[in-house]
Every structure is written in structure tokens, then in C-alpha cells.
Amino acid sequence: MKLKQTINQTIQKAFDKANISEQPMSVSEATKPDFGDYQFNGAMALSKKLGKNPRDIAASIIENLDIDGIIAKAEIAGPGFINLWLNPLFIATNCERSRVDERVGVEKHENPIKVVVDYSGPNMAKQMHVGHLRSTIIGDTLANLLTFLGDEVIRQNHIGDWGTQFGMLIAYLEEMGEDGSVSLKDLEQFYKDAKGRFDADAEFADKAREYVVKIQSGDAYCLELWQKFIDISLGHCEEVYEKLNVNLTRDDVRAESFYNDELPKVIDALNERGSLKESNGAQCVFLEGDEIPVLVQKGDGGYLYATTDLAALWYRAQVLGAKRISYVVDARQGGHFKQVFRVAKEAGFVPEDVKLEHIAFGTMMDKGGKPFKTRDGGTVKLIDLLDEAVIKAKAAIKDKESYSEEEVEALAKIIGIGAVKYADLAINRESNYIFNWDKMLSFEGNTSLYMQYAYARIQSIFRRFDGELKGEIIIGDVLEHRLAVMLLRFEDILERTAEDASPNQITTYLYELATLFMRFYEQNPILKEGVPEEIKISRLLLADLTAKTIKQGLDILGIQVVDKL
């Protein structure tokens, strides 16, 4: 449920009864249990406007507050804060509704919009490396979240497949003959070998340049070789996506070549608006206040990244009809996107009511605070990193003798991949972060393994429970109250995460929820002999909702749970 919205509506009714015409500020979650469940501090902001003492305003609000339904108690604190405690019956009733709901009480958007999420963007000339990890999993999480909330999400994997290097690559692929597909298993080495031939052999270089022209002019033979290279490259990407449990398919690919026919139209449209100016032979757009222009066409007629991005923005806004277009790309591209978004809006390629956002992220660092590399200073291939995660996860599994070999393999994959993803998503996406195997595979702290353990522990409770889960939730003490309120905040957290594109808000919530449940479990016995039946059932119902909420949260992050750990 939208808990905060419900409380705000209650405050609004109190404002109306008190004849306060000003719009009330939103309530906020209380920072300490002694302050209640929520706080309202709008009285202080209203004191100057209304010319009244903030405590008098707060008193007037409380006097007109309905405390028989949602709110159980309201108190004035400090210079005019209002501390609010929720009604236990209201909490219990809504927790039970969430528990029996397959969406754990989260409603879909009343007015869904169409959203394009552009993420991953692997290089077709090389294997995916760790630099692609953050874009891939942050983008996939955002797409999962918005889909869950009811928006129509279009996933877009923008790949570079239409440049000078591809003439070189297909010329080398042709030269390799039937063994080309074998060589392409190591795409990075294949690229290096092709580049070596290009640099050393003038005849080969001329052939490569000739092939670039032929590709772009639609030559059937060259396009066949080009397509073979793309297919093999994408096959490698799909292997990585499968390991990562990421929802990107070949149908989501929108390569540079897809927009090729639109590039001249972009130039024509900018020219008709009078936006283009020539600079050293190149066509540029000069934005007011920016010293560096946006280059859209080279002197030799060639196009640039900005041209393709403008064509993509036009297509996504005008053809697909997106109202929000999100680019999950390295923070270092911030200046580029800022300029391209501005050109797109000023040129009318994208309507003013369409939200354009660069969802920037920082760099993965090693323990020494340097960019993550192999021991010899090379780029870490993503698939190697994921394979290593599975190997290390096996070592973290306790009591291996209680599992079959197949179960250990499956469990290690879920734990290892989940650990890599969660460690990334758990930090502010704009921050750099230290990649640390020991920390991410720990049973303690804000880790995927801790969350999976919490879920598995709840499942173990139900395996020991011999009875029918039928009864009501009873809020009997402070810990039960806090746990129940935390469970009802889930939808608010998801909505805030979707607005800010900040997955770490979900991980923070899940960690706080799991930690609170562990305290609840330790201090509030569930299956212990002597616990009254109605209390046992109530606590089992809260445990069940906790498990379902953890599972749903991890599912949005693309991480699986396990029933036994």
C-alpha cells in the first residue's frame, strides 16, 4: 500500500477541518522509535505564513486529526513537530491484505507510461568486460522495477556495429575462412589480430576501408560477413546475460545501423531550423552558454555518436511514444548526454513533456582504489568474473555434505551471481565502489547472502511448523509493531526508487527489514512450547509476509532466493 500517501491524506483532512488553506508538507519516516512511526514538521513552515506559533498550529492539527482509524496517537514535540503512531489494527489488517496478495500489497500505476531503458551497450569488437557490469545490472533492475509497477518498459541494448573498425573485422573474418568462428570465441584477441593486420599490411587496410563503404552501401557479400560477426558477438553477450539472470534478448538490440537511414534526416532537420554552423569543415550545433559545440557531421560527410543518439531520441519519443527515456551509462558521458538532450529538445525531436535522464554510475575499483584490472593490468572479462564468483560461492556454502553435487552447483550459481549483483546495487550508483570478494560473500552485513539466509531461515520455520496457517495478525509489542510498519513501507520504497533510479534504496530497505526480522525472531519466540496458538499464528503470518517481501525485492534486483542455506 502507499502508506505515506494514506497518512498524508489523513493530515490533509485535519487541515481542512482546522480551516488551514495551505497545502500540508509530506510526512517523513520517524528516525527513532520514540518519535513514533512518522513525523510531520509542516507546522513550523506554516508559522510565518499564518502568523501563529508553530506549536499552536500543531495543536490545531492534532485536535482535528482522526485518531480512530489510521492514527492511534499524535503528540507535539519540540518547536512544533507532530509525532504520529499508527493504529495497530490498521497495521495488522493491511499486513494481512499484503500477505495474501501476489504483489505483496504493491499497486500498479493508475496512469502507466511508456519508458525506454537503454542499458548494457556491449562492444561488438570485444568480449564484455567488468566495465559493462554496472550498466547491465542497474539498467535491468530499473526495467524490472518499472515493469512491476505497471509501466510499459521497452528495453534497448544500443550496440556499436556501424563504423570503420567493422571493415577491418570482416576483412579479417573473410581471411580466416571456416576457422573464423573458432577464432571469434576470443573476441578480444580476434580484434587485436585484425588490428595488427590492418596496421602492418597496406593492401589489407585498403581492403578494409573498401569493405566499410560496401557495408554501408548494402553490398550483400559484405553484409553477410558483417552479420556473421554480429551474430557471434551477440551470442557471447547472451551467454553473459544468462549467467547474470538479466532480461535482455536479441529482440532488445537496437544497434547504430538501425538508425543509419535517419542520420541524414537529423542533419536536414537541424539545418532547416538554422541550428547548424560550420567549424573547420564540420557541421556543429552551438548551444548558448556552452563553449564546446555538438559535432553532428564530419567534414568528409561522416556522422558521429551525437548524430546517432539524436536519431535514437527522435525514434524513441516520436515512433515508440516514450514519456521517459533513461540512459544507464558511465558518469563520464555526462557532458555528452547533457548536450544531446538539450539539442533534442530545442530541435523538437523530443516533446517537452518527455523526461530524458542520464542514469550515471561510478567505476568499479580494486582494494587499492584503482580501476579493477587483471593482475597483469589487462581488462577483466565479465564472464571470467562471474565464473570466479560461482567458484568462490561454493566455498561459502556451509554443510556441503547435506547437498547433492547438482544442488551445490545450482546453489553456488545463485549465491555467487547474486553476491556480485547485490554488492553493486547496494551502493549509491554515482559512487565508485571497491570490489571485495570477502565482503560480498559474507553472511553478515548488507549482502545478498545475508538476505538469502534470512529468507531461508524463515522457510526453515515453516518446515518445522505442523499446522494450518489460519488466523489473524496481532500487534502485541514494539518489535511486532515496527516490523509490521516496515513491511507496509515496501511500496513507498519502490516508488521512490523508481523516481530516483536508485536501486540502493531497495537494498537498504531489505537489509533493514531482514535485520529487524532477526531481532523479532530472537525476542519473540514462534514455535517455542508455551506460546499461545493465536500468537504463534500471528508471528508466523508476519514471518510469511517478511519472506514474500524479501523475495519480491530480490526478484526486482534480478537475484534468486533459496529455501535452504
Q: Which labels suit this protein?
A:
single chain, 13 strands, 4-stranded antiparallel β-sheet, 10% strand, alpha/beta, Rossmann fold
Question: What would you say this structure looks like, in words?
Answer:
The chain is α/β, with parallel strands linked by helices. The chain folds into four domains: 3-86, Gyrase A, domain 2 (2-Layer Sandwich); 114-159 and 254-364, HUPs (Rossmann fold, 3-Layer(aba) Sandwich), CATH 3.40.50.620; 164-245, no CATH class; 382-556, Isoleucyl-tRNA Synthetase, Domain 1 (Orthogonal Bundle). Helix content is 52%, strand content 10%. Helix 18 runs parallel beside helix 21. The longest helix is centred in the middle third of the chain and has 25 residues, at 220-244. It is globular. It starts with a helix and ends in a 9-residue tail after the last helix. The mean pLDDT is 93.
Brief synopsis:
This protein is α/β, with parallel strands linked by helices and 565 residues long.
List the helices and strands and how they pair.
Blueprint: H1 3-17, E1 28-29, E2 38-40, H2 42-50, H3 54-63, E3 71-77, E4 81-86, H4 88-99, E5 114-118, H5 133-148, E6 152-156, H6 164-176, H7 180-183, H8 187-200, H9 202-216, H10 220-244, H11 263-272, E7 276-279, E8 282-285, E9 294-297, H12 305-319, E10 324-330, H13 334-346, E11 355-361, E12 364-365, H14 382-396, H15 405-425, E13 433-434, H16 437-440, H17 448-464, H18 478-488, H19 490-500, H20 504-523, H21 533-556
Parallel strand pairs: 5-6, 5-10, 10-11, 12-13
Antiparallel strand pairs: 1-2, 2-4, 3-4, 7-8, 8-9
